[in-house]
C-alpha cells in the first residue's frame, strides 16, 4: 500500500499514470503463445481445440456443445432459491438495458432529401465467461442479456470445462436464464480462436465480448479485425472518494471486495482526511484475516493500493477524474452533489449504501466496464455494443440536380474524377 500526499497544485495526468501503473500482463511470451494457438485452431479446427483443451484444462472433450440435459441438471443443482435470485437479477438487468434500445429513423432534412440511421443487431456474438479461481454467473447475465435485448438472434457462450468435462452449474443456469442459444465447453485462447474462426462443429461469430485472463485478452486483441470485440479489459479496480464522515470499516470492505478478484486488482482511496485513511488501512489489515481469498487480496493491496491525501473534496474529484476508475464510489456526506462533477468513471456508486457489489450482481447497470484508465474514453458494455448503425440516404431528382455541380467540384479538388463522372452522367443523360 502506498500513500501519496498530493501537493496543493495537484497532480498531472502523467503523474497519475505513473503512480497507478500496474505490471503489464502483455509479455512477448504471451503474444507468441497466443499467436500459435490462434493459427493452429484456425487451421486445425476441432482437433486443435480438443488438443488444447486436454493440455490446458486436463480433459478430453468429444462434443463441445452443452446438451439440454446438462442444462436441466444444472438448473436442478443450483436449486429454486438461487434460480429465483438469477431471475430477479436478470429482470433488473433487462429493464435497465431496455432503456438503451435505439430505433431506426429516416427523416426529411431538405426538400427532396431524406436521411437517417438504421439499427440492426449483430447476427451472431460470442460471450466469453472465464473459469479459473471463481465462477461468474453474473458475467453471463451482464454480457448475454444486453445482446438478447438488442435482438441478436444467435448468442454463443464459451467457457472452460472442469476436469470431469462438466461446466459449472451456476454458469449454465445463468446462461439459460439470460437467453443464450448455445453453450460451448471451450475456454482460454483456444475458445477465442474457435469463436473467431469457427471449427467443424462451432460456427464463427461476428463479435466477442467478455473478460478473461491475460491469454484471453491477448487473443481478443489479435483476432480484432476478423471479429469485433468489446474491450481489452484489465484486472478489476475501484476508486473511493471519502471524507471524514465516511465509515472506515465499510470503505475497507469495499476496497477488499475488489482486491479479492485478482492479484493485479487495484484500489484507490482519495480523501482530504489522513485520519480516515489511517483507519481504513487498519480496517483492511483486520478484515483481511477474515477472507477466504486472503492471499489474492493481500497481494493486490500490497502492490496496487494507493491512498491519495488531498487538500479538499474538489481536489479529490480532480484526482479521481484523472485516474478514471472502473468503479467509483462516492462516500462524501454530500455525495450526489459531487457525482455531477465526475467525468471519468465506468460506473458511479453514489452514497454510503450503494456498495459496488450491488452493481456486480443485482442493480441493473452493466458490470463489464472499462479498466486501466480507459473509462476516460470508453463506456460500459451495453445494448449499443450489439447493434450496428447504417446510414440511410435518399435524394430525388430535383434535390440531386441542385447539388450536382458542387459534388463534382469536390471530386475534382480531390483528384477523383470518376466520382465526378458518376454525377455528371446522371446530369448529361
List descriptors.
429 residues; alpha/beta; six-stranded parallel beta sheet; five-stranded parallel beta sheet; 47% helix; globular; histidine biosynthesis; zinc; histidinol dehydrogenase activity; NAD; amino-acid biosynthesis
Briefly characterize the structure.
The chain is an alpha/beta fold and 429 residues long.
Any idea what the shape is?
A: globular
Proportion of strand residues: 15-25%
Q: Which sheet architecture does the biggest sheet show?
A: 6 strands, parallel
Structural class: alpha/beta
Write the element-wise H/E pattern from the N-terminal end onward: EHHHEEEHEHEHEHEEHEHHEHEHEHEHH
Sheet with the most strands: spatial strand order: 1-11-10-9-12-13
Number of helices: 15
Gap from first CA to last CA: 76 Å
Radius of gyration: 25 Å
Number of strands: 14
Helicity range: 40-55%
Looking at the chains present, what oligomeric state does this protein adopt?
A: single chain
Residue runs with pLDDT of under 50 for 5 or more positions: none
What number is the mean pLDDT? Answer: 96
Detailed description of the structure:
The strands form 3 sheets. A 6-stranded parallel β-sheet has the order 1-11-10-9-12-13, sandwiched between helices. The chain has a 5-stranded parallel β-sheet with strand order 6-5-4-7-8, sandwiched between helices. Strands 2-3-14 form a 3-stranded antiparallel β-sheet. Helix 8 packs across helix 9 (274-288) and helix 14 (397-413) packs antiparallel against helix 15 (417-428). It has 429 residues and is of the alpha/beta class. Strand 7 (207-209), helix 7 (214-223) and strand 8 (228-229) form a beta-alpha-beta unit. It has 15 helices and 14 strands.
Amino acid at each position: 500500500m502506498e500513500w501519496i500526499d498530493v501537493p496543493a497544485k495537484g497532480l498531472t495526468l502523467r503523474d497519475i499514470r505513473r503512480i497507478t501503473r500496474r505490471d503489464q500482463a502483455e509479455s512477448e511470451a504471451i503474444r507468441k503463445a497466443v499467436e500459435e494457438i490462434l493459427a493452429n485452431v484456425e487451421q486445425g479446427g476441432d482437433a486443435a481445440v480438443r488438443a488444447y483443451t486436454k493440455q490446458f484444462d486436463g480433459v478430453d472433450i468429444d462434443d463441445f456443445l452443452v446438451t439440454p440435459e446438462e442444462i436441466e441438471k444444472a438448473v436442478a443443482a443450483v436449486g429454486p432459491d438461487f434460480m429465483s435470485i438469477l431471475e430477479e437479477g436478470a429482470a433488473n438487468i433487462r429493464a435497465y438495458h431496455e432503456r438503451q434500445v435505439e430505433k431506426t429513423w429516416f427523416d426529411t432534412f431538405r426538400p427532396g432529401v431524406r436521411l437517417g440511421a438504421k439499427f440492426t443487431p449483430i447476427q451472431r456474438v460470442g460471450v466469453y465467461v472465464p473459469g479459473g479461481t471463481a465462477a461468474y454467473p453474473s458475467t453471463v447475465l451482464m454480457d448475454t442479456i444486453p445482446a438478447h435485448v438488442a435482438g441478436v438472434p444467435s448468442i454463443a457462450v464459451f467457457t472452460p470445462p472442469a476436469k470431469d468435462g462438466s461446466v459449472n452449474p451456476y454458469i449454465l443456469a445463468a446462461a439459460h436464464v439470460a437467453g443464450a442459444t448455445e453453450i460451448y465447453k471451450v475456454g482460454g485462447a483456444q475458445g477465442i480462436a474457435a469463436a473467431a474462426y469457427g471449427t467443424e462443429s462451432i460456427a464463427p461469430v461476428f463479435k466477442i465480448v467478455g473478460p478473461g485472463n491475460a491469454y484471453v485478452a491477448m487473443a481478443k486483441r489479435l483476432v480484432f479485425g476478423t471479429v469485433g470485440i468489446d474491450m481489452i479489459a484489465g484486472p478489476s479496480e475501484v476508486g473511493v472518494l471519502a471524507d471524514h464522515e465516511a465509515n472506515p470499516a465499510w470503505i475497507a470492505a469495499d476496497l477488499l471486495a475488489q482486491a479479492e478478484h485478482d492479484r493485479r486488482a487495484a484500489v484507490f482511496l482519495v480523501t482530504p482526511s489522513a485520519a480516515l485513511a489511517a483507519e481504513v488501512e487498519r480496517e483492511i489489515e483486520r478484515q483481511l484475516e477474515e477472507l477466504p481469498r486472503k492471499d489474492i487480496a493481500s497481494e493486490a493491496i500490497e502492490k496496487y493500493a494507493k491512498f491519495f491525501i488531498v487538500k479538499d473534496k474538489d481536489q479529490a474529484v480532480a484526482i479521481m477524474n484523472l485516474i478514471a476508475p472502473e468503479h467509483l464510489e462516492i462516500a462524501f456526506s454530500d455525495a450526489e452533489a459531487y457525482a455531477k462533477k465526475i467525468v471519468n468513471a465506468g460506473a458511479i456508486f453514489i452514497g454510503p449504501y450503494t456498495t459496488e457489489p450491488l452493481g456486480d450482481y443485482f442493480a441493473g447497470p452493466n458490470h463489464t466496464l472499462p479498466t486501466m484508465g480507459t473509462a476516460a474514453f470508453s463506456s460500459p458494455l451495453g445494448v449499443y455494443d450489439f447493434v450496428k448503425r447504417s446510414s440511410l440516404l435518399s435524394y430525388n431528382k430535383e434535390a440531386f440536380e441542385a447539388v450536382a455541380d458542387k459534388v463534382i467540384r469536390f471530386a475534382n479538388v480531390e483528384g477523383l474524377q470518376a466520382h465526378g463522372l458518376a454525377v455528371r452522367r446522371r446530369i448529361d443523360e
